[in-house]
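::Amino acid chain::
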Amino acid sequence: MDIEKYREYCLSLGETSESLPFGPDVLVFKVRNKIFALFSIEQFEYVNLKADPQNSEIWRQEYEQLVKPGYHMNKKHWNSVSTQIKDSLLLEWTYHSYSLVKGKSKKSNKDS
């Protein structure tokens, strides 16, 4: 997947913002001030996405070469997903991550 196409998709999701809180190379997408996706701008090879633990295990087994435990993240809840995976899966899993984070975020945080 192309980095700009992916960025546009993330920004198209409601209440989404982007920032560079970890330095100039790591682009972070948040919903209601909580992270749902992040990746290296310089090496757009993997995207860290949140997933429920059951899905994390299934996806890691099914797509062993393309889905790894989240790099520098809680391995139970985050996956590093290769951008070489089918675009449809990357977008579906991004939406899954977004939905998990949005569902657990308090509405009062949306303006913070």
In short: Strands lie at 16-19, 26-31, 34-40, 46-50, 67-69, 78-82. DSSP finds three helices and six strands in the chain.
